[in-house]
Specification:
The chain is mostly beta strands. The protein is 9% helix and 49% strand. Strand 4 and strand 5 form a beta hairpin.
Amino acid sequence: MQRIILRAKIHMATVTDANLAYEGSITIDGSLLEAAQILPYEQVMVSNLNNGERFETYVMPGEKGSGVICLNGPTARKGAVGDKVIVFCYSLFSDRELKGFKPTIIRLDDKNRIIAGKKR
């Protein structure tokens, strides 16, 4: 049996930009993607704490160390600069693969710097 399980999470990111004139996706600081073990172009679900919006899209890597969290294309309508979002990345796992598994979760401050980021 395969189960869909949370594999990675970027918790309490702050939206830094919204760019409606783009094909669509979310741009995330490349160093945050590495820390969370999320790959470029991987599917993610984003939950906006300010307005309750939830949407799926894919990740575009942003400049490392920039702190960028940019909503692109139609996702730019799902939030505003300054909104707090949580980025979830799910994967399929077999029951055997789940033994001892813990998702990678990073927590951010208001400037999108990692304040905690261990496998939990």
